[in-house]
Amino acid sequence: MDNVLIRPATITDFDVIFDFVCGLENEQFDRSRMRQCYVTNLYAPHHHYLLATVDGDAVGYITCHGQILMHHCGLVYEIQEMYVVPEYRSKGVGKLLLAALHERLSRENYVLLEVASSFKRADAHRFYEANGFVKATYKFKREP
């Protein structure tokens, strides 16, 4: 898609990204609490929030957070969220978001880019594998 623009997300993009996160998780989140998280993360070091637009309309986004992990002896990034609106899926928007993220991360001395994806997201698994990611670990979680 030639008319897709990938740019850093800004504070004014919160409302559309809020809607995207709710769509991604199929859940309605607390807007105020999520806004606090968004503002905190948007300006934090080693955090990248990118928005895809077509003719000024937001069509997708990707967020990525980095941290220094001792067992990797360096900076490891993890894609936290990635979403493309349904009518733009399978049209290259996700690939463009990954390419823009890779370009940003290539300026940093990082050792690994990871992504965790729910078992229920088979399409996402195929997308990540088609874009060079390999299944490497299990990720466990425990609620407080």
Polypeptide structure, described:
There is one protein chain. The protein is an alpha+beta fold. It has one domain: Aminopeptidase (3-Layer(aba) Sandwich). The chain has 4 helices and 5 strands; from the N terminus they run E-H-H-E-E-E-H-E-H. The chain has helices at 14-25, 31-42, 93-105, 122-130; strands at 4-8, 47-54, 57-69, 74-84, 110-115. A hairpin with a 2-residue loop joins strand 2 and strand 3. It is globular, with a radius of gyration of 15 Å. It starts with a strand and ends in a 14-residue tail after the last helix. The relative contact order is 0.15. The model has no long low-confidence stretch (mean pLDDT 94).
Rounded to an integer in angstroms, the radius of gyration calculated over CA atoms is: 15 Å
Give the C-level CATH assignment: Alpha Beta
How big a fraction of the residues is strand? 25-35%
Given the C-alpha coordinates, what overall shape results? Answer: globular
Q: What is the third-level CATH name, the topology?
A: Aminopeptidase
Largest sheet: 5 strands, mixed
- Helix/strand/pairing category: alpha+beta
Helices and strands, with pairings:
Elements: E1 4-8, H1 14-25, H2 31-42, E2 47-54, E3 57-69, E4 74-84, H3 93-105, E5 110-115, H4 122-130
Parallel strand pairs: 4-5
Antiparallel strand pairs: 1-2, 2-3, 3-4
Short recap of the structure:
The protein is α+β, with helices and mostly antiparallel strands and 144 residues long. It contains four helices and five strands; from the N terminus they run βααβββαβα. It is globular, with a radius of gyration of 15 Å.
